[in-house]
Amino acid sequence: MQLIRCKSWLLFAALALAAPEVSAKLSVDPVPASAELNDALAAKRYDEAMTLARREHEACVAGKGSDPCVGLLALQSDALTAWAVDHGDFDRDEKREGMALRTARLLHAQVNRLKGFDGPIFASAFGNLGEMLSLYGRPVEGEQYLRDGLRYNIVRAMEFQGTERLSDAALRTSLLRLTRNLALQGRNEEARGYLAAADSLLSTLAMMGSPEAKRALPDFLAVAALVPGEAAGGAADYIEAAAGYEWEREHKGEGWDPDDWAAVRGRLARDEIAFLARSGNMAKAVARFDAEPDLLRGGRGASRLEFLTRLGAALVAEGRANEGDPILAEAMPVVDTTWDRSDDRRIDAHAARGAAILALDPAQRADAAAEYRQAVSGAVARVEAADTTEGLVRAVRRYRPVFEGLLGALLPEAASSLTRGEAFEAAQWSSIGETAATLAKVSARTSRSDGPVAERERFREEVRASVASLNREIAQWLSVPGSPDTDRELLGRFYLRDVDAVMDEMSTEEIAAIDPAYDQLVKPRPIAAERLQALLDKDEAVLFFLSDERGTSVFVLTLSGFTWHRSTLTRDALAKSVERLRGQIKRDLRERWAGSVDNFDEQLARNLYQELIAPIETSLGGATRLMTVTPGPLSSLPLTLLVIAGADTQKPQFLIDRY
């Protein structure tokens, strides 16, 4: 982290001390904007600014052609992007891309055709496109554009003098945009570096008494809340991230205009509640809201929308659905037009709304399922966008409650074949975890042992082995008493160096380009029910079990049939039963190595059979061979131990006796 801080201060020093540079100008002089348009942008009246910019740009193109009017197009893109950040993109086409994203693409394409350079125009062309792609849930695609936008903003800032450089809002915005993008990707170390650079700029402005520091504080803190803390290794405490705001609050907004301070204080308090809920601290979020319920009446744009959805979700999670549901109901009409379907905020909002509906009236399952379907659609897009196996596992863990929520909202008894297939795929997405990913990679390496990807993997393993061997030798030298400090320092530089920090895991895009078949194995994906059925023989059946907080789903697939049963046995209840049976088996084996089952609870094993197997046994269609998929609690209990009859006799009949 010290290195990151150093880099941030180097950026600050470069901005503060570097001599102005004169960049090559565009081959055409951009037509300037009207004073009215500039005033609207300065006052952040973006709805007015984008209308004025569009009119001025269209009139300019009609009279002068496109190249001289690129500056007006850049201002139009600036206004549209700022509006989209607060209110969402609009006027979407058949590709589901709105006006702000289309304009950003148009500006970027036009700038790439121009000869010469113009700092503000180039910064807008790349920065706005990167920001819009991030808003559309495509941060990996948008990252390079944001990096280019930051570079161009640094170049343009060199044309300013002294504090004018430090207070440049466009430069600060580009730093925060890239920070947010990296945080969305989970690349927190890099995000902290760029956040530290923005922090350096703001801290310097504050020390100089610049009013720009206060105006920039809310946007900075909103991004800071997204970046996990350094010390805890997890999400930073919001108060720690918002130390500047806490100082202002302690001083009761000293130095602020009263109206400005009231708005800023409310904005930051709502952001704090949203952050607490987003990071899983639902009880804290609700307690913070209870201390200041008037916060519901303030705020605007995307900040208020996220506050409403996160607060609504927290209230539902804390058993106060009667309060959370009206808040979510107010927000939902705006959610779908503001955030893209793969945006975490939209996914979580729909999932919370589905949970609220079920909590208030379980009979309204159709409405709840509609909300969960929206959430699942976005979650699948996010999972499929993961560029490594580990990334896929993290994404599945993040969205597992969404997939399980859909299963809890659907009714198996009334489900059509399409709905059963939908539930089966959701269950598979939920069960893809570390074990599935590891098995996929192992099978991939085994089945593709002669391919180019396998050669790359073998090379990585050889490097790992070499590093481990070197570490062992260095550790022996370091442990020798009296070794010179210079030798210890030199050896310490090479000790425990992680090969993965030097040799990043290949992304799925790289794998697919080298070997598409390997890629299919490395990233587990659901298989359609009909495709699985086609692989079965007449005497075979697949049983897929998935338990969640509301119950357990059992899917039965045979060559000619597909059944879905839903048990009321929750994941916690099932885990307790499994643990009890396993404990009895372990104790019995310790006491009687002959394999006696005197301590085995046959009645409990019978109850599990009655709850999970008996209701679907008629759907097995005469199958005698069962292939079971048992993620979760059942993974640690052989199903062959379930008792199908005679639990109260000396010779109980077990499942293995029948199949």
Structural topology:
Blueprint: H1 2-17, H2 35-42, H3 46-64, H4 70-87, H5 99-113, H6 119-135, H7 139-157, H8 163-166, H9 169-184, H10 188-207, H11 211-224, H12 238-241, H13 243-250, H14 258-278, H15 282-290, H16 301-317, H17 321-338, H18 344-360, H19 365-384, H20 389-409, H21 417-431, H22 434-447, H23 452-478, H24 485-492, H25 499-502, H26 508-514, H27 516-522, H28 529-533, E1 540-547, E2 552-558, E3 562-567, H29 571-591, H30 602-612, E4 625-629, E5 643-645, E6 653-654
Parallel strand pairs: 1-4
Antiparallel strand pairs: 1-2, 2-3, 5-6
Helix pairs in contact: 1-10, 2-3, 3-4, 4-5, 4-6, 5-6, 6-7, 6-9, 7-9, 9-10, 9-11, 10-11, 14-15, 14-16, 15-16, 16-17, 16-18, 17-18, 18-19, 18-20, 19-20, 20-21, 22-27, 26-27
Question: What is the average per-residue confidence, as pLDDT, rounded to a whole number?
Answer: 77
Widest sheet: strand ordering: 3-2-1-4
Low-confidence stretches: 1-23, 230-247, 438-449, 493-504, 592-596
Helix content: 55-70%
What does this structure look like?
- This protein is mostly helical and 659 residues long.
- 64% of the residues lie in helices and 5% in strands.
- It is built from 30 helices and six strands.
- The strands form two sheets. It has a four-stranded mixed β-sheet with strand order 3-2-1-4. A two-stranded antiparallel ribbon has the order 5-6.
- A hairpin with a 4-residue loop joins strand 1 and strand 2.
- Helix 26 (508-514) packs antiparallel against helix 27 (516-522).
- The longest helix is centred in the C-terminal third of the chain and has 27 residues, at 452-478.
- The radius of gyration is 30 Å and the shape is elongated.
- The two termini are 59 Å apart.
- The model is unreliable at 1-23, 230-247, 438-449, 493-504 and 592-596 (pLDDT under 50).
